[in-house]
Amino acid sequence: MLEFGGEALVLTHDMLVEGVHFLPGQDPADIAWKLVATNMSDLAAKGAEPLAVLLGYSLGQNDARFVAGLKEALDAHEVVLLGGDTVRSPGPQTLGLTAIGRATHRPVPSRGGAKVGDALWITGPVGAAMLGLEAFKAGTGDSLAYRRPKALLGEGMVLAPHVSAMMDVSDGLLLDAARMARASCVTFAIDSPAVPLACPEDRCGEALRWGDDYQLLFTAPPQCVPPISAFRIGEARVANDSPIQLDGARLSEADGLGYQH
Amino acid sequence: MLEFGGEALVLTHDMLVEGVHFLPGQDPADIAWKLVATNMSDLAAKGAEPLAVLLGYSLGQNDARFVAGLKEALDAHEVVLLGGDTVRSPGPQTLGLTAIGRATHRPVPSRGGAKVGDALWITGPVGAAMLGLEAFKAGTGDSLAYRRPKALLGEGMVLAPHVSAMMDVSDGLLLDAARMARASCVTFAIDSPAVPLACPEDRCGEALRWGDDYQLLFTAPPQCVPPISAFRIGEARVANDSPIQLDGARLSEADGLGYQH
After folding, report:
1. In CATH, what class is B2-103?
2. What is the pTM of this model?
3. Which residue, B92, B102, B172, B182, shows the most beta carbons closer than 10 Å to its own?
């Protein structure tokens, strides 16, 4: 965050590496989309309105296809490409995107603001990206949720004035909730049946640990009714050794809460 | 450039790839320095005051040494690290830096503003980085000019109100001058004996084509005396087929004017 001209600028930078964050054979248009969406999701979590992006691009197998996907993603998120740098690399393709946004509410939501007694909410179901990846690998069904996640920019801006803490779920609900708990010095008691699922119920445990859904996770005072559809999944309690208490069971990062990288 | 809060933000993003922009065995502290300096030099050419940087970093052999060099470079250019992303990559190390600055003068100088009759100036000698690289490879003498170039931020801000066009010389004086000529629709007549050299005179031809010196190249109306020390090396003439006329000889990009990448 950067104070400038009486406003707060929110800046994010995310990287994607071939073979690490995406598969060598994947459609470059989908990769471009994901690069934009992950950065836009970071802005969404801050309640920021996107202004522009800068691209760091190492040339790949099909640059025209990447550019086409980039254009689609920028249009879908209503943001413009301002510039950047292009390089030739002998190694795996490495992409970086910087996104610049304007904070629409002060203070800018952070992951460190949850208070004991606050309710914990999520904007929508988890598990969709997991099913999407499976469909993608199998070449069956709808893989859009995995290939083309959409950042919840509008939701983030609407929520910002109401939340005590907010972040996007990119590495798994439990892991990201644990990070919010640590940053806020609380423990989250989470009620798994209350978490909305996009997958069969018997895969709940996986869905709670799967990333890439880009829902917004937020806390608000207990009496607050969020101005948009959201699901109350737990509450903030006095911190104990574990950041998460799932259906009464204490969990910490060592228990494998999500995608560690 | 981005209009924001009544001001103009200048944003740049440059990448460095191991094996392409730096050698695998090079001191990570020097690489960090160069990454910062190249981006700061882009801001200098816009007369911008640096506000902050974001780093995209793929882990390397000696990350602590990189961080130490980064800190030195940020301190030397009086700018702060705001955030970024760190990734593991199986390939060559790939680094990206985004720099954000505030334009100190409007209109923000560009490479497209040179007018016929304007004088062409450079802030200092070329050839120092060339000698520095040779000293570095030979393990003799002073390689600082190559390893630790300093962006001319103060000079850029002082010059901005006086110039009709400005850019930094990163890929070679002749090549960058050709780019300015193309963008401004003029031809630059350059007088090579007037170009200050940091190397022996018999290497003038090389020094005019060597990058990495990060001097500022600018044009100004013929009667203008720049407020800082600078060297008048030519003038803008009505455009012909060649962007550069060096000591009367017409040259274009095909003649090998600098470092093409």
Report:
1. alpha beta
2. 0.88
3. B172
